[in-house]
Design brief:
By secondary structure, the protein is α+β, with helices and mostly antiparallel strands. It has 4 helices and 3 strands. Helix content is about 35%, strand content about 10%. It has a 3-stranded antiparallel β-sheet with strand order 1-3-2.
Length: about 90
């Protein structure tokens, strides 16, 4: 069975700050999986990544579809349209 780590667990495992792991995830510098909205790290992927010198071969080359990995996406209820703003002026 594959072992998965949380951001906190990986930070402890690698003896790094959680913020460092989060930055690497945002920059797609470390292999991770996203299960629904939860980020996890396969221990085998991390070990291979370390053995390869910290080069993420699993990440896509394009960041065009980058989304905020740690926050919930905006819903229609919280989005204000340009027309609503223009009507308030």
């Amino acid at each position: 069975m594959e072992t998965y780590l949380t951001i906190e667990g990986l930070a402890q495992h690698l003896k790094l700050a959680e913020q460092t792991i989060r930055r690497w995830v945002l920059n797609r510098e470390i292999p991770f999986c996203k299960i629904k909205k939860v980020i996890r790290f396969r221990l085998s992927d991390i070990e291979n990544w370390i053995n390869d010198g910290g080069v993420n071969t699993l990440a896509s080359d394009s960041l065009d579809n980058e989304v905020d990995l740690f926050d919930e996406p905006d819903t229609d209820e919280t989005t204000v349209s340009d027309e609503a703003v223009a009507g308030d002026v």
